């Protein structure tokens, strides 16, 4: 595929063919991830490949019962990982730290870059993916199931396989609403209305066209897309709960040392 076709053709795939991904192709995808940029070339991430059906069934609950967890042949979980490097430092009589929040952020950025490289390589080969925010939201449950040691935290995950659907591309906010030159230029009310106009129309239509989503919207008495985001999908209460889960897990995984 042409590179621009890969970039602009992205869709989240939730339905997959009952077809295995060859190890050769999987290796090509993983090699693309490993070539991603990383801070100081430390590569402070690890990639967990999950194929085992029994383990995927256990992960199904941790991933908020999303069907692609069990339907896709592969799950990829990208972890911020300073466990490996800390052991290397210890073996070389070097100071052993990287056990703080900044280190977690470095590992998260490294994992994100690797994840997107893998995603592009997969889509270029005709495979589909679907990112799952549940990876970070339920990092404690997923970390336990994947037997992650201290200084390793799952931050990004997605399903991977051959698509069994061809969903329409989702809209994106216009470039002028996202890109700032030289310095950040804050938005007026008029700017916001213009930037989100298409999103509000297409997003609302999508909810009204899917019976289950329409029923939920009507049941909650929601009147616009902004209310869907903050009352139905991403509530303040849920974000507070997930935030505490992440903070607690970072503490237990030795990423919150301030000494």
TrEMBL record:
Q: Where is the signal peptide?
A: none
Keyword tRNA processing tagged: no
Q: Name one GO molecular function term.
A: oxidoreductase activity
Per its UniProt record, what Pfam families does this chain match? Nitroreductase (PF00881)
InterPro entries linked to this entry: Flavin_OxRdtase_Frp, Nitroreductase, Nitroreductase-like
Mind telling me which Gene3D superfamilies this protein's record contains? NADH Oxidase (3.40.109.10)
Q: Which UniProt keywords are given for this protein, alphabetically ordered?
A: Flavoprotein, FMN, Oxidoreductase
Domain of life assignment: Bacteria
Q: Which residues form the Nitroreductase domain?
A: 8-162
Matching PANTHER family, A to Z?
Answer: OXYGEN-INSENSITIVE NADPH NITROREDUCTASE
Stated family: Belongs to the flavin oxidoreductase frp family.
* Designated name of the protein: NADPH-dependent oxidoreductase
Q: Which organism is it from?
A: Rossellomorea aquimaris
